[in-house]
Amino acid sequence: MASLKALRMRINSVKSTRKITQAMKMVAAAKLRRAQSRAEAARPYAERMERMLASLGAGVAGQPDAPALLVGTGGDSVHLLVVVSGDRGLAGAFNTNVGRFARARIRELEGQGKTVKILAVGRKAAVFLKREFASRFVGEISFAGKKVVGFEDAADVAAQLTAMLDKGEFDVCTLVYNRFKNVITQTPSEQKLIPTALPESEEDTLAGPQALYEYEPAEDEILAALLPQNLAVQIYRALLETTAGFYGSQMTAMDNATRNAGEMINKLTLNYNRTRQANITKELIEIISGAEAV
Amino acid sequence: MATFQLELVSPEKLLLSRPVEMAILPAAEGEMGVLPGHAPMIVALRGGVITVREGGQETEKLFVAGGFAEVSPERVTILADEATPVANLSRAAAEERIAACRKVLEGAGEMTPEKREAAMGRLLAAEAMLAAAQAA
To answer: A205 to chain B, minimum CA–CA distance in Å?
Structure first.
């Protein structure tokens, strides 16, 4: 049986662990609230962008000289996966889930004989996927040093993608990230970036009076400016959802850790008290038997 | 007087959403005043100041660094790349930005024409920002 001193030290160490996990949980909760409100604030822009794109894109998509950002290169052999994850750990299975999802997708695509390239946004997915697919990496982006991820960061990623598309480095671009369902559920999912997945309400807007827009400058010029912006918006949304999901996941993980630490402390304390009592009993027996011997 | 709904959104948040009487937009091909009942349009914006008029007076001035506007008879939606009330602009920040844009342009020798154009657009937007800051 462990000595009293060793037990005391273990109890103290678990107690301080519990303090840390508790603090981390509070911090995560506060950051989650902020991340959620930022995600909500970004929604109106994305919605209106979608609406505008729907009315513009429907008219241009069928034309032979439609921009590559909208309709893709026409090929389907090189796939670029943009995998978005958190930069830090201690958030349960959050980063692993998105990594696993990406891994399954990569295997599936390669099974179909396609070439896969990976652009990792966030450190954790990069580390996870590098173990197996290091040769497919084309880039890594991390916002670990930043306090908040702004729209400019998303725009930078989008610019990088556009440049790669111009050079013909990929045909299809897919975004893999953790969709934020609510605080406790985040599901890894994918979203087509290039070719652009036009919103489904397309037909409704076409039929309505909205199709009669005038354009200044010309339609294709606006579209050429709107598409990269839309790309950035999509990425920005993924980044925001990842941030919110990360903190949600971290909060749950830390809550569990705090509870586990509490249980452990209870067990250890019980153990400690038993040992203490056993020691006292033993000493008493020694004294009594000593007294009897006299 | 008749009004229309003006919405100004930047990627980060919804900045403005209320009925106004008139808005003047810095469209890519010249300033454009919008009154209620305007024909449906989609316009690209350059860097400049959006002026809102109510009751015959300018009630709001906002600087945008570019973006798009969707105009319909009863609503105008502006998707701005970046928007700040003119009162909050600072000359120093604007000058800094101009300097940064100039630097990019100087190294523009081997850039594609589209890229140079984009950099030029940014410089013009920064200059508009400075002008707006000085006027305020």
So the answer is: 13
Are B69 and B109 in the same domain?
no
The answer, yes or no, to whether residue A208 has pLDDT greater than 50, is: no
Question: Is this prediction's pTM over 0.95?
Answer: no
Tens-digit pLDDT profile for residues B59-72: 888 888 888 898 88
Chain A residue with CA closest to B9: the answer is A45
Q: Which residues does A65 contact at the CB level (< 8 Å), separation at least 6?
A: none
Across chain B, mean pLDDT equals 83
Give the CATH number of the domain where residue B48 resides: 2.60.15.10
Mark whether B82 and B97 lie in a shared domain: no
Interface ipTM:
0.76
Instruction: Find the range with the poorest average confidence among A33-37, A149-153, A172-176, A236-240.
Output: A149-153
Query: In this complex, do B68 and A225 lie within 8 Å of one another by their Cβ atoms?
Result: yes
Same domain, B73 and B111: no
Calculate ∠ Cα A191-A192-A197, nearest 5°.
Answer: 110
pLDDT averaged over every residue in chain A: 86
Higher pLDDT, A164 or A259: A259
Alpha-carbon Rg for chain B, nearest whole angstrom, is 16
The nearest CA of chain A is from the CA of B72 a distance in Å of 8
Cβ separation of B42 and A55 shorter than 8 Å?
A: yes
Q: How many domains does chain B have?
A: 2
Helix/strand/coil for B66 = coil
Co-location of B76 and B45 in the same domain = yes
Distance CA A96, CA A53 (A): 34
Range of the domain at B120: 89-135
Assign a CATH topology to domain A22-253: Pyruvate Kinase; Chain: A, domain 1 (3.40.1380)
**How far apart are the CA of B131 and the nearest CA of chain A, in angstroms?**
23
SS3 per-residue string spanning B114-130: HHHHHHHHHHHHHHHHH
